[in-house]
Design a protein that fits this description.
With 238 residues, the chain is an alpha/beta fold. The protein has a domain of 121 residues: P-loop containing nucleotide triphosphate hydrolases (Rossmann fold). A 6-stranded mixed sheet has the order 6-7-8-3-9-10, with helices on both faces. Helix 3 packs parallel to helix 6. The longest helix has 16 residues.
């Protein structure tokens, strides 16, 4: 049984039909990536999974349970964490305070929170160096590390990553993707939305291509990396 299963998902922004019957699955331990042009529905898919948007039709199953009728905070408690597009760190809180906000599902369990924070600092040593610094004073790359680290503080079973490389210099992009690969190697299941289709396909196990709210291609990531249609449309090749 898939960890995440989406069936016939329809979602709207007002009267705009953003998702038009999407079907996808994510198996435990996989990295699955969604690629497509701006406006294809990638971010909307993640927002619907995490409860920020309520679907008009269809279902989202996680661990065999239907979750699309649950509020966002309950979905986090079920084991899904979302590192959103644009990072959205708390600019007036310190790095440590930002991380603690991600651990609210642990209640007052200080030992568990400290253990999770140690795991994040092990993954992102730069954050430990900046732990008393305000989130708003961090560089773009550091804020992205903080956004991912905050999502990991809840020890999720599934991590949703939305455009982790957006706006970053090439060296930082490589570092972020290396980290995504490492997170997955430690056992984390990841659903990745990413404009850098080549980098995403290189680290993913499987991929879905979205166009105007519909899945138009899917399969093993390496197959899509070699697919002529994908190479022309998303990898900039003639």
């Amino acid at each position: 049984m898939a960890l995440l299963k989406i069936e016939n998902l329809h979602a709207y922004y007002g009267h705009v039909h953003a998702l038009k019957g999407i079907n996808l699955e994510v198996e435990e331990g996989e990295v699955v990536t969604l690629i497509g042009a701006n406006g294809a529905g990638k971010t909307t898919t993640l927002r619907t999974i995490s409860g920020l948007i309520r679907p008009r039709e269809g279902r989202v199953e996680f661990g065999g349970q239907v979750i699309n009728d649950r509020p966002a905070h309950r979905i986090v408690e079920e084991g899904i964490s979302h590192a959103p597009e644009g990072r959205q760190v708390f600019t007036t809180l310190t790095v440590t305070e930002n991380l603690n906000m991600g651990a609210y599902t642990l209640g007052g369990d200080r030992e568990a929170i400290e253990e999770n924070r140690r795991r994040v600092f092990n993954l992102f040593p730069r954050l430990e160096e900046r732990k008393n610094q305000l989130g708003g004073t961090l560089s773009g790359g550091e804020q992205q590390m903080l956004s991912i680290g905050r999502a990991l503080m809840a020890r999720p079973r599934l991590l949703l990553l939305d455009e982790p490389s957006l706006g970053l210099a090439p060296l930082l992009v490589k570092a972020i993707f290396d980290t995504v690969r490492e997170i997955n190697a430690r056992g984390m299941t990841i659903l990745l939305v990413e404009q850098n289709a080549r980098a995403a396909l290189k680290i993913a196990h499987r991929a879905y291509v979205l166009e105007t709210g519909k899945v138009v291609l899917s399969g093993p990531a390496q197959d899509l990396l070699r697919d002529e249609r994908v190479r022309k449309a998303y990898l900039g090749e003639q």
